[in-house]
Amino acid sequence: MHHHGYLWVGTKERFDDEALRRPPYPEPPPAGSRPELIQRYREVAAEFPIVDLPPLETAYWLVKPPSMVRGTWDEGKEAAVWLGERVTEYAPRFASSRDRDTTEVALLVNSAAERLGSGVDVSLGFYLERPSYLSLAVVTCSPNRAEPALACPVE
Hints:
Elements: E1 2-11, H1 12-15, H2 35-47, E2 71-73, H3 76-90, H4 97-100, H5 102-117, E3 122-128, E4 132-141
Antiparallel strand pairs: 1-2, 1-4, 3-4
């Protein structure tokens, strides 16, 4: 078991495009469906695996290109340290002063280390100034507990 880290920063508006943040349905729309429905399905099917937006289900980061992996660690504690460093790096831009609190950051890191050590994915999100959003995730790989069929993006 190992862990991959992911980071995304972008506009809140782009983050809210949920159609590109969820995997397409396994089956396309039935023949005779409205053309716009078929077109939207094709768009999502083509874009979901390559778009840099954070997936709604954390495990689906594993279907994204390997270039989106920001780090790989064998130990959950190491991955949690990376999360803590990223939170600290972006903290001055957090919209909420509570999220900037160093005690809160320490609690987040400790909680993340525990969860990652037991094979559970960790996903954090913070609103930033200028309505932007920061998404951080560490995904357990080989296998992933939530989606064991998903292959490791970095072999």
